[in-house]
Write a structure and sequence with these properties.
8 strands, 8-stranded mixed sheet, alpha/beta, Rossmann fold
Length: about 300
């Protein structure tokens, strides 16, 4: 209750004081909760996109998206690129290709991003020495002391704290068949992991340019994707769920195909149908927000098909 009251107060403060800092959108409206509190992870900004014509008397599906600071406005992002969520979903809604939907953009936490997005249970199946080696590499490339794995707590934050607040503040359906999760790269990793860990909460996941190597393709941690395969084989929900994967062929994406093919073989063996699972390859596309923006309409329509 304290968290919910804090969030409502934050919404009021956002309206009064933070409008100039909000992402500028061409479709719909952004409502921001700054420093959303949590007992599981560090507080963070959450940007809520309300679709054009938002009506409190109507119920909505919700898509929870990672890397929330990269979704709406290139003038606010570190690389001046964006997912174009508002433009893409606004057009799909206007053309009646999807029903109106709410998007909850959860900001990443900078240097802790990989620790929050790394599927935790498969990682912890690795030998201690391999775990330590990966942590050392992470510390080197990110130039900070290593953190503990935070993915399970990050998902608890979404499911146990953020989601109940969103469902209280907005007229959402709130059930599994209307609740989805999406991200790219490491955000793709935590999205499929969320579907496996909380199959009664999420009805589907969109995983763009999923970073299956876990670290560097072909490097010392080849055991890590092997643990991903084992975990997916054991835990992936095959009934009444939808999963979307894709990858490009340029920059970092050029390494993903053999990993994705292995995952595809697992899902194929589970007899996943084309109604519930799709993997797409995009020739000539790289690992960037620009590439993901170009094809965002595809996974969104797949997740919301039939609603």
């Amino acid at each position: 209750m304290k968290i919910l009251l804090f969030c409502i107060s934050s919404l009021v403060i956002s309206h009064i004081f933070a409008q100039s800092n909000l992402p500028q959108v061409t479709e719909g409206k952004i409502v921001r909760i700054e420093k959303f509190p949590s007992k599981y992870i560090d507080p963070r900004t959450v940007d809520i996109w309300l679709p054009p014509g938002f009506d409190k008397s109507q119920k909505y599906s919700v898509i929870y998206m990672h890397d929330g600071q990269m979704l709406f406005d290139p003038s606010k992002t570190w690389n001046k690129k964006e997912w174009k969520v508002d433009e893409t979903l606004g057009a799909l809604i206007r053309d009646k290709k999807i029903p109106p939907v709410i998007v909850v953009g959860i900001w990443n936490n900078g240097e802790k991003r990989r620790y929050e997005y790394m599927p935790q249970k498969p990682f912890e199946k690795l030998p201690i020495s391999t775990q330590a080696e990966i942590r050392t590499t992470l510390m080197t490339i990110t130039d900070h002391s290593p953190y503990p794995l935070l993915a399970d707590n990050y998902l608890k934050f979404i499911v146990k704290e953020l989601m109940p607040s969103i469902n209280k503040l907005y007229p959402t359906y709130g059930d599994r068949s209307h609740t989805f999760i999406a991200g790219s790269s490491f955000g793709g990793m935590i999205s499929w992991y969320a579907l496996c860990e909380y199959p009664k909460v999420f009805g589907g996941a969109a995983c763009l340019s999923t970073h299956w190597p876990g670290m560097f393709p072909g490097n010392m941690n080849a055991a890590l994707p092997t643990e991903f395969y084992k975990y997916i084989n054991k835990h992936f929900p095959v009934k009444n769920h939808r999963i979307y994967f894709d990858y490009g062929t340029e920059s970092l994406d050029q390494y993903y195909e053999p990993y994705q093919q292995k995952v595809d073989s697992i899902l194929r063996a589970k007899k996943m149908s084309s109604d519930n699972w799709v993997t797409q390859k995009f020739d000539g596309k790289d690992h960037s927000e620009g590439a993901w923006a170009e094809r965002l309409a595809i996974p969104i329509q797949f997740l919301l098909h039939g609603q």
